[in-house]
Design goal:
This protein is an alpha/beta fold. Helix content is 47%, strand content 12%. The strands form four sheets. The chain has a five-stranded parallel β-sheet, with helices on both faces. It has a five-stranded parallel β-sheet with strand order 7-10-13-6-14. The longest helix is centred in the N-terminal third of the chain and has 35 residues. It starts with a strand and ends in a 6-residue tail after the last helix. GO terms for molecular function: ATP binding; sequence-specific DNA binding.
């Protein structure tokens, strides 16, 4: 759709000249002979650009500019006059005019200015749209669910977001800890500044200090230039430290200093830098147990644990499973139709399955169905471990074999995967303890986790 332009000038010849010129460039052009008529037109039509003379009977162009910017600030305005002065130019620019040119002007000059003014308006609108989209996505819509457990999470995030308090988010892998951290950031006064995330367990121990605090040139082999770390890059914003339980003890002491003193030094640096950064940390480990084992500093734990947010496992909020399926199906299939997205038998299987990988596993499952071309989520598109899942509490002896037969291996696989999940639950996620509960070696336990695609979870 072509951009719509309003030309405001008390001279008919000038209006018609500009109209012919701009219509020839493909724009849709309207005319007004005074500011009052222009305002009447703008009350009925949304214009992308207004080109206005300065000297007109009644309201002049500067007064019209002021009215436009107060009523529709997104409208671009270009001022034209035969009596150009520096004072007028400064006043027009202060009031928000895109530019100011004097008569007589060159045709090409007008074409270029109009194109630039419209391009800038489009860019501003796009930035505003993206900003609104980001804030909407991470306000609370990124966290889906209306269960009691999730309502408690939303309530806690709302209360803590405006403060500078450190937040510790705990929960199993795949429960949405980073989404919760983003919700805290985008509901806080720091929403217009950076949100940076780092997985502390994914960075080699020799590099994590440099990654967080930066380094100076020559501080170690390969440091060919000064480099800011994440604390500098997140200045004024939020730094999300995921898997904080993986941080080495030596670095924990330096993190504690940042939290206490709000300052740090680059690796190899001699001067302290201020750290205006909010810290949100997360872990799928039991940090209190790590404190007792001596692998996590107690003072750092209490510094991080000012406010604790616990993300519930998906099996604890089964009522959110189907709304999550709908959310992910719309995301991956760009679905905009009506009706059910999940068949009844598929819904029953999804509600029966414990989802050891939590929301992340469910999202991957829905994406898989979309990739396989399912118009709705059916039982056939679900992975075998989901559609064949049998709860451990189901009696095993005697086994009713249906007339058509049964998949014995599938039955045994689902039983084995459920026992693996239970062992992990009872051991608090500690795999060595879970292996001991099942009377097997750690290596054998890891092999079985990998067999069922549960190794990362």
């Amino acid at each position: 759709m072509p951009a719509r332009i309003l030309i405001v000038d008390d001279e008919l010849s000038m209006r018609e000249f500009l109209a012919i010129l701009l219509e020839g460039e493909g724009y849709q052009v309207d005319q007004a002979e005074c500011a009052e008529d222009a305002l009447d037109s703008m009350a009925q039509v949304k214009f992308d650009l207004v080109i206005s003379d300065v000297s007109m009977p009644g309201l002049n162009g500067i007064q019209l500019l002021s009215r436009i910017k107060s009523q529709t600030p997104e409208t671009a305005v270009l001022m034209i006059t035969a009596f150009s002065t520096a004072e007028q130019a400064v006043e027009a620019m202060k009031l928000g005019a895109y530019d100011y040119i004097g008569k007589p002007f060159k045709v090409e000059e007008v074409k270029v200015l109009v194109a630039k003014a419209l391009a800038q308006k489009t860019l501003v609108q796009e930035n505003q749209r993206l900003k609104a989209e980001v804030q909407e996505r991470f306000s609370f819509s990124g966290l889906v669910g209306k269960s009691k457990q999730m309502r408690e999470v939303y309530d806690l995030i709302s209360k803590v977001a405006d403060s500078m308090a450190n937040v510790l988010i705990l929960g199993e892998s795949g429960t949405g800890k980073e989404l919760a951290a983003k919700a805290i950031h985008y509901n806080s006064p720091r929403r217009d500044r950076s949100f940076l995330a780092v997985n502390c367990g994914a960075i080699p121990e020799t590099l994590i200090e440099s990654e967080l605090f930066g380094h100076t040139k020559g501080s170690f082999t390969g440091a060919i230039a000064d480099r800011p770390g994440l604390f500098e890059q997140a200045e004024g914003g939020t730094l999300f430290l995921d898997e904080i339980g993986e941080v080495p003890l030596q670095l924990q002491a330096k993190l504690l200093r940042v939290l206490q003193e709000r300052e740090f030094r680059r690796v190899g640096g001699s001067s302290s830098l201020k750290a205006d950064v909010r810290i949100v940390a997360a872990s799928n480990r039991n940090l209190e147990e790590q404190v007792g084992e001596g692998t996590f500093r107690e003072d750092l734990f209490y510094r991080l644990n000012v406010v604790q947010v616990r993300m519930p496992a998906l099996r604890e909020r089964a009522e959110d499973i189907l709304p999550l399926v709908e959310h992910f199906y719309k995301k991956y299939a760009l679905w905009s139709g009506s009706g059910d997205m999940v068949t009844p038998d598929a819904a029953a299987a999804l509600l029966n399955y414990p989802f050891p990988g939590n929301v992340r596993e469910l999202e991957n499952l829905v994406e898989r169905c979309v990739v396989l071309g399912s118009r709705v989520i059916t039982l056939e598109c679900l992975p075998p471990k989901v559609r064949n899942f049998v709860p451990v509490s189901t009696p095993l002896d005697p086994v009713d074999i249906p007339p058509e037969g049964m998949d014995l291996q599938g039955y045994l696989d689902t039983l084995e995967s459920r026992l693996l999940v239970q062992a992990l639950e009872k051991s608090g996620g500690v795999k060595k303890k879970a292996a001991a509960l099942l009377g097997m070696t750690f290596r054998s336990f890891r092999y079985r986790l990998a067999k069922f695609g549960m190794d990362d979870e």
